[in-house]
Amino acid sequence: MQIFQTDLLCIGAGLAGERVAIEAADNGFSVTCLSLVPARRSHSSAAQGGMQAALGNSAMGEGDTPDVHFADTVKGSDWGADQECARIFADTAPIAMRQMAFWGVPWNRVVPGEQTYYKGGKPFTAFEKPENEGLIHSRSFGGTAKWRTCYTSDGTGHAVLYTLDNRAAQMGVEVHDKTEAIALIHDGETCMGAIVRCLKTGELSAYLARATLIATGGYGRIYRESTNAVICDGGGHIIALDTGKAVIGNPEAVQFHPTGIVPTDILVTEGCRGDGGTLLDVNQYRFMPDYEPEKAELASRDVVSRRMTEHMRKGLGVKSPYGDHLWLDIRHLGEKHISTKLREVQEICESFLGVDPVHQLIPVRPTQHYSMGGVRTNSDGAAYGLKGLFSAGEACCWDMHGFNRLGGNSLAETIVAGMHVGGKVVEFLQGSDTAFKTDCMREAFSRQQDRIKALIHGANGRENVYAVRNAMFDAIMKGAGIFRNGKDLQESVDKLTDILQRARKVGLRSNGLGANQELAAALKIEGQVKMALCVCYAALKRTESRGAHTREDFPERNDRDWLNRTLATWANLSDDLPTLTYEPATSVFEIPPGERGYGGGKIIPMDTPPVATPKGAKA
Amino acid sequence: MARMLKFNIFRYNPQDPQSVPHMQSFTIDETESMTLFIVLNRLREEQDPSLQFDFCCRAGICGACAMVVNGRPGLACHTKTKELPEENTLMPLPVFKLVGDLSVDTGTWFRAMYKKIESWCHTKKVFDPSAPEERMDNAVAESIYELDRCIECGCCVAACGTALMREDFLGATALNRVARFILDPRDERTEKEYFDIIGTDEGIFGCMGLLACQDVCPKYLPLQDVLGKLRQKMAFAAVNNLLPSFMKREVKL
């Protein structure tokens, strides 16, 4: 057994993982990042749109402040967010963006003078002030009062990730790519690193670390149709859940994006709608203003996705061999705009659909997109349940997004929260020491070795991992889609409980030698089914509609009974269902629960409304 | 009429003592809007679970699925089967170390490259969190992003005559990266410092000008222009080193 030792082990080397890593390296600690793929292939690279920060440089962002950003974020979350985290986020975002500019991100900048913008398909003009020339510009995104999304054409994630990875290389952060953490090393109280499988050789090793960070992105790939990269398979959540101690917060909070292209579910950015793209139905009629007169296509994602589904249910979708879809129209933005600011969109349309969006409509439908839930942490990013374990980015439930996150807030969260959590990890590393218990390490190592042997030799059975995965896809899609109800969710939970038994009997059909990818799938299938059960079971129990969680049988947002966060654990490895408990959604109220201003829906108010607590104070 | 497609795929698992490099044929029925992403996943799930290949974003953004399709390096995710003949050959990218079958290790190669060219903004300034950002001309920002769009798929390296012959050649992707920093006003490196990195046979003067790099680039980066201008700039830099200052010339990228 090869043993690596480091101060900080970052599981995941996307934007959040690397931003935390850089903070620790900058303070003199040794850092190793593990990554399933070369760091620059992380799913962060696929984010096209941008990062929200209240810089207020652009004409349409004038007067923006962190307070306005904070309010948008809390409203967007449907009051499910932890307001302490939302506040830290909104206040830190402008500094984090400027720092990224300093490190080399080619943000688009303010060009002074008259500029033409589109809103709802109609052009209008804005005057960019000469005194702001050259400052970071911003574009419009759904659900926000001001234009505050910093961007680099439509390759923001790519540009920021490359800059950050450059910085990581400069700071001497070690990246071990093509590696996968398959179990955490812990003694029930403290996390001491991870057991890791090399995806080049298949070899197992142990990584001992004083602090361990889970930054593995979302768990979208437990759904069949997802905009997520294939690596966003819940790997980090599974190893956390397997400890029986770490907690998954709000697993049922799953966001669907309005514009996944049909049939491949690749995302085209919200920037399309932000820049003035419109949604059309089978009659090429623009329907969104009928549902949402004020915000139309720019209502928040959960609202737009629901309205689209509602409209298609009325029979107004476009029929296709892959099911119904709608059209996204960006033709009126013109070739110059599309080929510069929306070039990735143009390339995606041409490469995967054979469609030229300058002249043709884009087939779209709502598709699984973002996991608001994840490894539950406190505001420092420290995981519940295990000392020395941290989490950041989409992998965690920090929780600034509540039940719906706003476009541009997730990409920003990676570096903004990464900067904040990085600082807290540094404080932790400075203030504590860990005794590495080699018996825990050996036990974890041999348990994984045994699992691998059992899978290769079919000791537990010969279930086909891909067949089990397909059964899981069917079960979760049935109950935990855009619209949910008690009957379908119960059916999903029952089916998944059966599928869990099958997942425990998986055996390989190949020899499992080397970087065998069937083995990688087999090692995580049981955990994936457990995650799917967390999603469906938590959704079944939450008898209200909040943000992206929409119950047809409970259409009201119920602040009286459900202004709280689901906490899911898997107490014993052999359990068939997660254990659910609840905690208040937020410990601090800067803004008491109110209406979002879009999306309609009734609210059952709290019995006793909270008293707003002053900024920074604890309730 | 649905076609039956045949794929001859390179097979070798270096970690399996029994394995020898060979070609294996698979057949699969073509479906609508099929891409190599769909083909390879179906082959692994339905026919041979030991088949190794890489996909990540499956959307042409991350560069994970580069492979040699019918003799030409490209991204498998946006290779549509309707543009392919009935019989096809899939090989792993050359130059990079083989992991198994169609999967190669590009990460190690690229990481070594960043260290060699010091792929980060070199500045003596210190970030001030309380100050507004330093201004930049939007056109400059856009021109930097234009070169920053490389996804490190490795296609250009795999298609490069020099890279195939000599291990230490930086390749178009590294030279393009250097050009990106030369354009960036935040990077304070001098022409001389850049010359020290790329003014050699391992760098710009090793390029034979075959220009396959640009032909196969899935992001359509203007590699031909970049390499041409870089070569000119470095040639002048070499001469400038010998000339008195009033005779020195500079080439803008």
TrEMBL record, chain A:
GO biological process, one term: anaerobic respiration
Active site: R301
Keyword Mitochondrion: no
GO cellular component term, pick one: plasma membrane
Fumarate reductase/succinate dehydrogenase flavoprotein-like C-terminal domain segment(s): 469-598
Membrane topology category: Peripheral membrane protein
Keywords from the UniProt entry: Electron transport, FAD, Flavoprotein, Membrane, Oxidoreductase, Transport
Localization, UniProt: Cell inner membrane
GO MF term set: electron transfer activity; flavin adenine dinucleotide binding; succinate dehydrogenase (quinone) activity
Ranges where the FAD-dependent oxidoreductase 2 FAD-binding domain occurs: 7-411
Keyword Chaperone found: no
Cofactors, names only: FAD
Matches recorded under InterPro entries: FAD-dep_OxRdtase_2_FAD-bd (IPR003953), FAD/NAD-bd_sf (IPR036188), FRD_SDH_FAD_BS (IPR003952), Fum_R/Succ_DH_flav-like_C_sf (IPR037099), Fum_Rdtase/Succ_DH_flav-like_C (IPR015939), SdhA/FrdA/AprA (IPR030664), Succ_DH/fumarate_Rdtase_cat_sf (IPR027477), Succ_Dhase_FrdA_Gneg (IPR014006)
Start and end residues of each stretch annotated as Disordered: 599-619
The protein's Enzyme Commission number: 1.3.5.1
Pfam families documented for this protein: FAD_binding_2, Succ_DH_flav_C
Catalytic activity line of the entry: a quinone + succinate = fumarate + a quinol
Stored Gene3D superfamilies: 3.10.20.820, FAD/NAD(P)-binding domain (3.50.50.60), Fumarate reductase/succinate dehydrogenase flavoprotein-like, C-terminal domain (1.20.58.100), Succinate dehydrogenase/fumarate reductase flavoprotein, catalytic domain (3.90.700.10)
Family: Belongs to the FAD-dependent oxidoreductase 2 family. FRD/SDH subfamily.
Protein name, as recorded: succinate dehydrogenase
Protein source organism: Fundidesulfovibrio magnetotacticus
UniProtKB/TrEMBL annotation, chain B:
PROSITE patterns per UniProt: 2FE2S_FER_1, 4FE4S_FER_1, 4FE4S_FER_2
A Pfam family per the record: Fer2_3
SUPFAM superfamilies: 2Fe-2S ferredoxin-like, alpha-helical ferredoxin
Cofactor needs: [4Fe-4S] cluster; [2Fe-2S] cluster; [3Fe-4S] cluster
Superkingdom in the source lineage: Bacteria
Top enzyme category: oxidoreductase
KW Iron (keyword) present: yes
Molecular function GO labels: 2 iron, 2 sulfur cluster binding; 3 iron, 4 sulfur cluster binding; 4 iron, 4 sulfur cluster binding; electron transfer activity; metal ion binding; succinate dehydrogenase (quinone) activity
GO biological process: respiratory electron transport chain; tricarboxylic acid cycle
InterPro entries documented for this protein: 2Fe-2S_ferredoxin-like_sf, 2Fe2S_fd_BS, 4Fe4S_Fe-S-bd, 4Fe4S_Fe_S_CS, Beta-grasp_dom_sf, Helical_ferredxn, SDH/FRD_Iron-Sulfur, Succ_DH/fum_Rdtase_Fe-S
Keywords (A to Z) from UniProt: 2Fe-2S, 3Fe-4S, 4Fe-4S, Iron, Iron-sulfur, Metal-binding, Oxidoreductase, Tricarboxylic acid cycle
Domain 4Fe-4S ferredoxin-type: 141-169
EC id: 1.3.5.1
Quaternary context: Part of an enzyme complex containing three subunits: a flavoprotein (frdA), an iron-sulfur protein (frdB), and diheme cytochrome b (frdC).
NCBIfam families xrefs: dhsB, PRK13552.1
Membership in a protein family: Belongs to the succinate dehydrogenase/fumarate reductase iron-sulfur protein family.
Identification of the protein by name: succinate dehydrogenase
Taxonomic source organism: Fundidesulfovibrio magnetotacticus
Gene: frdB
